[in-house]
């Protein structure tokens, strides 16, 4: 399964590497190779980094902390101290480097630099005015969180091409039975 980058924030996209959280979970970052591929597909690094099992566990801990923090922001509850510490520890490291090379943009660094960039994006969202725009996809069984940046703040699905299309097609079929 491919990664989706539809949440409007890199931190939420990392949290979105688990699908169907309330049902039969689908973990798209089950191996170190999955995480390495995610860093490239997310546009954080140009070359897949080496990833150890310990680093995968660290990334999964960050992913789950971001999900819980974003859920707290969405529901108006207090942030968990341990989750804030996990996020802040990752964000406090040096981020991935970005430079203009001879042939365009070049992104570099190791896995921890990529996770730092991701954690910084999440911290900026959760600590800023857009935290109140975090929503959960209404399509069943999707549980992806996203930033509702729509004009009227009425977006219902994480992605119109996937969840939104399925929901509208199901509604159409139901009306025409």
From TrEMBL:
- PANTHER family attached here? BLL6575 PROTEIN
**In which domain of life is the source organism classified?**
Bacteria
What is the protein's given name? Answer: CGNR zinc finger domain-containing protein
Q: What is the lineage of its organism?
A: Bacteria, Bacillati, Actinomycetota, Actinomycetes, Streptosporangiales
The species is Nonomuraea antimicrobica
Q: Where is the Zinc finger CGNR domain?
A: 134-176
């Amino acid at each position: 399964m491919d990664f989706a980058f539809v949440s409007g924030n890199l931190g939420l996209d990392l949290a979105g590497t688990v699908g169907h959280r309330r049902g039969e979970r689908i973990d798209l970052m089950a191996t170190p190779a999955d995480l390495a591929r995610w860093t490239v597909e997310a546009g954080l690094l140009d070359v897949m980094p080496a990833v150890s099992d310990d680093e995968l566990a660290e990334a999964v801990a960050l992913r789950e902390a971001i999900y819980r923090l974003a859920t707290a922001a969405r529901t108006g509850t207090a942030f968990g101290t341990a989750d804030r510490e996990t996020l802040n520890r990752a964000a406090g490291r040096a981020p991935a480097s970005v430079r203009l090379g001879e042939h365009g943009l070049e992104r570099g660094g190791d896995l921890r630099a990529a996770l730092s960039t991701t954690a910084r994006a999440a911290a900026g969202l959760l600590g800023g005015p857009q935290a109140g725009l975090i929503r959960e996809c209404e399509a069943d069984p999707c549980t992806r969180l996203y930033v509702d940046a729509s004009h009227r703040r009425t977006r219902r699905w994480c992605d119109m091409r996937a969840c939104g299309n399925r929901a509208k097609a199901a509604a159409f079929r139901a009306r025409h039975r």
